[in-house]
Amino acid sequence: MNPSFSSVFALYRYWCLRALCVLSIILPSSICSSAQPAVVIAVEDDAAPWSRADGSGYANDLVTAAFKAVGVDVELKVVPYARCKRMAVNGEVAGCFSMSPAADLAGVIELSDKQLFVVQAGYFYNVQKPPSSKRQADLPAKTIVGTVLGYEYPNSFEQLKQKGIIVVDESPSEEINLRKLAAGLIDLALLTYNEMKSPAMLIQKAGVSGQVKTTFSAGPMNSYIGFSTRHSQGQWARQQFNKGFSLISRNGKLRRLRSNWLRTLSK
To answer: What's the whole-number average pLDDT of the chain?
Structure first.
């Protein structure tokens, strides 16, 4: 072999070996990262500003940030809440949000370790027909209350429903319930709200300002992301979310996210 060619070949082999050594260190983590499966999570389409029809919302940002913190890509599937819940229960998606504890979820849905936020479930009434009761426990028999298809409500409400004190009139959204209330089609409407999604915001969005007002509460509820026990990624996704949520809670990302949303909504 030509000496000069031999030297070039040896140099070439040396750099190839160096490259392989570097790749052997880099590639495993890179491959694992790219191979990490994306997770599909269903989310309600009509709970602004927590979750909106266009896929934006405080809860949407929170969930995405938690998964991103642990390097997991998430695809949000925006659907009506009843479908969101059904898809998670049936194992069609890894999870659904925002969900609250309920007896019918036992064994099929595991909630995240920490709630996304806390809400009040409160009653609204028609100003032309104010309720005689001052608290939920005193509602007369056969009181017709507007609720949303698939929504979870406080245990105290569910107990009155089972006793026949409350008769539910279900609709696809809280906005429709407020319009039905203003039209005199139901006695009361039970809606969920907090500092981001205020009663005033709900009334204005429904176009019933001056026609309905808030009254007593059914109680507070924690809202979570629920994970399907029947989906192959359900348990894994729950573990990843819990890790990510813990990270953004500690590093200040969660606090900043909440502050930014509150600031935007106050404008």
So the answer is: 90
Look up tokens 């696809």; give the residue: 172
pLDDT of residue 9: 44
- Above pLDDT 70, what percent of the chain? 87
Domains present along the chain, CATH in parentheses: 39-117+223-266 (3.40.190.10), 119-221 (3.40.190.10)
| pTM reported for the whole predicted model | 0.84
> For 30-44, what is the mean pLDDT?
71
Q: Is the pLDDT of residue 12 over 70?
A: no
**In Å, how far from its chain's centre is CA 148?**
16
Distances (CA, A) of 80 to 87, 130, 174, 211, 228: 11, 31, 12, 27, 17
Q: And the tokens for 260?
A: 């930014």
**Res 36: pLDDT:** 62
List, for residues 158-205, the tens digit of each pLDDT value.
999 999 999 999 999 999 999 999 999 999 999 999 999 999 999 999
